[in-house]
Write a structure and sequence with these properties.
The chain folds into 2 domains: 149 residues, nicotinate phosphoribosyltransferase (Alpha-Beta Barrel); 196 residues, nicotinate phosphoribosyltransferase (Alpha-Beta Barrel), CATH 3.20.140. The strands form 2 sheets. A 6-stranded parallel sheet has the order 5-4-9-8-7-6. Strands 2-3-1-10-11 form a 5-stranded antiparallel sheet. With 408 residues, the protein is of the alpha/beta class. The chain contains 17 helices and 11 strands.
Amino acid sequence: MIIKSLLDNDLYFYNMLQFIVDQKFDKLIVGKELFLRGEYKFPLGFGKALKEEIDSWKDLRFSDEELDFLYSRTKNWINFDFIYGYLKSYKLSPDLIKLHINRCSDSTKEDYESISLSYEGEWAKIIMFECFLLAVMNEIYGKLTFDVKHVLNFSEISARNSNKFQEMKDKKIQVFEFGTRRRYSFENQNLAIMQMIDYGVIKGTSNLYFAKKYDLPVFGTMAHELFSVFAAVYGVESANYQVISKWAETFNGSLGVALTDTFTTQSFLQHSFTRFYAKLYDGMREDSAPNTDIYVDNAIIKYSELGINPVSKKVVHSNGIDSVNLMYHLLNYRKDEIGRDLGVGTFLTNDVSREGSGKHLNSWVIKTVFAIVNGQKRYTAKLGDNPAKATSISDKLIECYKFLLDIK
């Protein structure tokens, strides 16, 4: 087993689970699907190993100690009854995951596997799968394709980490570790976090298991799927507003970093971020901006237009941060005018390629693709600030959303 604890997951899935339970969306039928960004030839045995790992999740439960830890770290926003009532009996339903494996051959007569993966069910029952699936896919793929010519060994990874973290220390950089879904392996994430602690460059982690193990602050708010599903329920024009207003209602002002880019940050700032919510929320998370400087500029302009001092707010960058130099720039660009935090993933937990630091190996995502609303199947989409990150199984829906939001 790779996943040995339900805590080995990002905090925001637990935030979102309470949110959808509180807002009575837990029974809504939602579908999700794996998207492979690029052509992948999975090694023989990959599908079988993945299926065995998925099947093992049916036995996972929270221990009392884990629930006590979760409550101790989240009691300012996640309520007692949800943790000791709802989560105490919570279990995964891996039978909902549909994994299709095909054996193929290429022009060199080399055999490999192609896979497709999807799942659907009550939102509360399937919301936890995403991070687990991505983490174990990376680990199984890495173990079955390990090649000393292309991948560093454990001691070399440790040495690369040391150089990286020493540079971060020298430049007075501290970040939040966001690397669970992109980690090369559980052991590699553990190594990175231990070394970050030793060098004093970690502010906290999104992973509850490692937060518990190393007594670290835990950080995380919301993900794109909330906005995508709410667009299917309420319409894309009001989805952003519905999420941030109901989120504030559920958490009473806590977890106040708004994710802005599901239907583009331009649309979010123009139509949804009113003065009330701009004052209530602590800041904004940048996750796909082609130009991060312009994102920061626009955040400062928006707060200033609303009569809010940007110094009292912050931008959290979490988009493909793949070098210490980039970290330094992100933390220091107009740093005296607005606060800054960094959530860094792949560069910390999957920086193992011999091609060079920052060259990660895999790129796949799991996205919400539909919701059943009033008996009708409605497709969903994420647009993002980078057009290359637009994701849906319906190109027509993407174009429709762009038309309705006047996105060029």
